[in-house]
Every structure is written in structure tokens, then in C-alpha cells.
Amino acid sequence: MSEVVTALHRFDLPVAQAFAAERGAKVFLADPALHARALAAGVTDLVVHTSSKADVARAAYAQAQRSTQALSRELGAQLKAIAPKAVEGCWNAHRIAQMFLTLHGYQRIWQDVLDQHAHVHWHVLLPQQAHAYGTHSFVPGLQLLNQLRERGIAFGAFGYDCPGMDAYQLPDLRRISPDTELLVHLPTCRYDAAHFAAEIQATGLRAGVLTSQLYDEPLDGLASSGLVSLAEVRECLGPQRVARVQALEPALRAVLVTHLHPHIPQQRFLDLQVQALWEALEAQALLYLWLEQHFSTRTPRQLLISNHDATIHGALTSFALQGGADVIVVPHSRVHNQTIKLEGARPLCLHHGLQDGPSLDIGGRVLGAGLLAYPAAPAVRRDARPLRTLGLVLNGISGNGMCLVNFEHYLGGIRQLLDWARLVGLAVKLRVRIAETPTVLLVERLGLDMDELMRLAQGSLLDFARGCDLCVGYDMPTSGLQDLLQQGLPVIQAEVRPLSWSEWSIVDERVVPRHGLPELMDRLELLKASTEEFMRFADRQYRIAQEAVAGARPLSAWLLRANEPKR
């Protein structure tokens, strides 16, 4: 038994290191993905939780969706005073969903941690920062404090300042033409931004691009709104409209307190979290009224958004729905494997043809969908070749700072595959996601070569796959497998735990079969034994992949179709 100080984020590490040195404590990592960063920060006396039994990906995610839906509905009922379609627009739902996922996920994680780790005293670091998507917060640490108190385990809580959100800014509508036909807001579409920009320009529609304060991706060739402070927005709106927003504050705060107090009973932290969420709602309410004012004579006919709400989607979609505009949603990473934060609305959700299953709204309703064409180089048919080299492709093991796997089982599966491949004479190339894989632990526990591991992580996944005969996706699929399939590069998925909908929907199982390790190794051994059977598998998979994307239409075609006069 020992004293430990928690480190849940890279911002915690220098504080934890100093505190541990002063108290002679060890630094406790609940997420193995933080291990390499801890070593790089000079933290060496570590306790790493590697045998997680917490069900984050399925149970905590489902609970977070229910909590988000309930809170979103009550907020929407109050926001209807200025935005009649606020319930459908689910204001702040993305941010709230991430908060509840962190909250419910860590409740499970800490229960599992305290069942497995007996330490005489816990020192819990609490960044003085409310939860906001993309920032560290006190929410995970508070869930540990609650459980330590319930179990009667000695603890201390220590606050520190860490980076948080900048002051809110909004798209500057003064730079958007009032006769805009297509309103565009596409945060986080990093890899497809240039393609989307070209498709939007090809329509010839009068497009107004709204800049995102967070995760903005420039759309080349299209002028964007830029950002403006809330103070300037208030000046544009005038005191009467601003007063309508301020009148919402007491009721919205009361709703937030009701839903958050059971999980954040500490008044000071509750006040900080409620304030943070109110500020986001206030910014959206100001934007909603500004949209009404700016487009007073005509609502744009279409709203094109990504599925990643960087703060303002609630106001945008409520405005579009109220004005009768079509709402079109594109994925920030080719597939909709998270719920679309709308309820009762009928957007058109475009996605890659290799997505597995439908697109869902926050209530689990199936939404209208269409196949979206993405640029792809022509496939080059490969000559018949035997199966000699496997590419083992690892995705990240964590989400929202929470480990999604039992890392001991995860490592054990990789070891089993490597040992089996050595036994049957197959070479294996291992590709990791450097920022999301505990590379040092992999190297130490599996006897790998770090330089080789880092070399294979460079370049695109497609480049890596071209050096292999067949790729095996390990655990959670990655959307990058889609490019391999369209190039005729064969892929199989190794399933080492039950996947959640948000994980298995990334790649269609009918195209990329998923097998547990014993069956996977049996099938690979058959493919290795017969070049003819291996090529038959590759050809069949390529054909099915092509059929899956057949009928996909360019974004420009979807936009022009939606812009046609309604009958």
C-alpha cells in the first residue's frame, strides 16, 4: 500500500510529478494511453491501471445518451421562448453528451480502480476548469472524490489552474450575404475540407461559410465569415433582443442544476459547471436572434453542417428548421458513428457507403441517409501472390481520456497473434497511432523494436498497407480501412471484445468480416495455405466493397438536388 496522486490528463503530469516528489507518492494513471507522455514529462514512479473491467464504450455511452436526451429536452422547452424548434435542435447536446460520457464513464472506472488498487491515501488533482469538449476539467476527479468518501478511504483534493476555453466568439454574419442560398458550417472536416470546398463551389449556389471558433477548417476558394466577440453581437442586436436572452438565464440555470447536482454535489464546482454551460447557451441564443435579424427577408434554402458540433449547431439547426430550410449533415470522418444531435427533425445524413448501419438521432431514431462519393484513386489489380506479410493495424485505446479496453487482454491478443504468425511463418508489420497507443508499454511487454514501430507509423495507412499482403484491423476499426478496400487491399477485423455501435459502425461487417482470434487465425492459415483461396477472398471483398459504394453521389449533386423547388 502506498500514497498515490492522480494524473488523468497531460496537464496533470507536471503538477502530479512535483506533488509526488514532495510527498514520496507514486503517480496513478487510470488510462495507459497517458503512460508515454508521463515518461516524457519525467514521471517514472508510476502505477498504471491496465486491467480495466469498466464498460465505458457500451454502458457509459448508453447512459450518457439518455442523460443528454433528458437534459436537452428540458433545456429546449425553455429555449422555445426565442427558438420554437429548440427541442429539435438539441442545443449544446454534443458538449453535454461528452460531459455525461466523462461523468458516467469515470464513475465506472473509479469503481473498478478502487476494487483493484488498495492505497493508503489518494491525492486527487482537480483542475479549476469546468468541462467543455476538448479541455481538461474537474469532472473526472470529482467522481473519484465521491467514491473515496463513500468507501471511507483517506484522500486529499488539490486544485490547480489549467488552460481552458477562450471567450466565446461567433461567426460574423455581417460578412454573409442576406441572399445566401446555402449556409455552411463544417468544423473538424480536416481530411475532406478541400474536397467539400470544391464540391460546394461546383454547385454555383450562393454559399455563406460560417467560421467555427473551434476546430475550424478553411474551405479553399470560399470566403468565410470570420469571428466576432459577443459584445459586438449584442451591439448589433440591440438591448431589446439581448434582454430576451438574459430573461432565459434563471430557468436554464435551474434545469442545469437539477440534472447536474446528483453527480456534482459540491456547490462551488456545480456553480462553475452550470456557468460554463449557461455561457454556451447564451452564445447560441444570441446567434439565433442574429440569424433571424440578418435573414429577416429570406431563410437560406439549405444548411450544410458536419456531425461534430463545435458549439453553435443547436442555434443553426433550430433556425433552419423554423425557416423550412433543408438540413444536410456530412461526417467529419466519413461515417456517422455518433448520434446526430437532433431529435424529431428530418435531416439528410450523407455518409460513406462502407458505414455499417443507419445514422441515428439522439433518441435512436433512424434518419434519412444518402451515399456520399469521396475521391479515390483507381484501384490497381494486384497479381496473384501468396499471403506472406500481415499488417496489424491498431486504433486508439482511449476516448475522452478514458481507456476503452482491458489493456492486459488487449496486449495478450497482440502477443497471441505475433506468436502464432511466427509459428506459421508469416511476417507481421505493426502500425500504431502514436498519440493514442501506449507505445512504450507495447515495446516493453511485447519485446518490440521502438525504432521500427515509429517508422511504420509514419505516412498514410494506405502507404503502410501497400507493403503488406493483408491487413488485420485490431479491436476498434478505423475509417482509414475504407481507403484500403477501395484500392483492392484485403482487410479482416480482429474482434477482441464486444464492440459498441459507435465502434462497429465504422466499417461494414458485410465487407470487412470480424472474427474472434481463434477463428481469425484459422481463416488466415487457410488463406496462407492457398494462394488461389487468398486471391479469391481479396477479389470477392473488393467486389463487395465496390457494390457498397455504387450509387454514391458527389456532394454537389446532393446539394443541387436539395435545392430543387419543393413540389
From the alpha carbons, calculate the radius of gyration and give it in angstroms. 25 Å
Separate helix tally: 21
Percent in strands = 5-15%
What are the segments in which pLDDT stays under 50 over at least 5 consecutive residues?
none
User: Distance between the terminal alpha carbons, to the nearest Å?
Assistant: 73 Å
**Count of all domains:** 3
* Chain-averaged pLDDT: 95
What is the total tally of β strands? 20
Percent helix, as a range, is 40-55%
Rough shape? flat
Category by helix and strand content: alpha/beta
Q: Strand order, biggest sheet? A: 8-7-10-11-12-13
Largest sheet: 6 strands, parallel
What would you say this structure looks like, in words?
- The chain is of the alpha/beta class.
- The chain has 3 domains: 3-50 and 118-160; 169-374 and 555-562, no CATH class; 389-549, Glycogen Phosphorylase B (Rossmann fold, 3-Layer(aba) Sandwich).
- A 6-stranded parallel β-sheet has the order 8-7-10-11-12-13, sandwiched between helices. Strands 3-2-1-4-5 form a 5-stranded parallel β-sheet, sandwiched between helices. It has a 5-stranded parallel β-sheet with strand order 17-14-18-19-20.
- Helix 5 (93-116) runs parallel beside helix 6.
- The longest helix is centred in the middle third of the chain and has 28 residues, at 267-294.
- The protein is flat and about 75 Å long.
- The N and C termini lie far apart (73 Å).
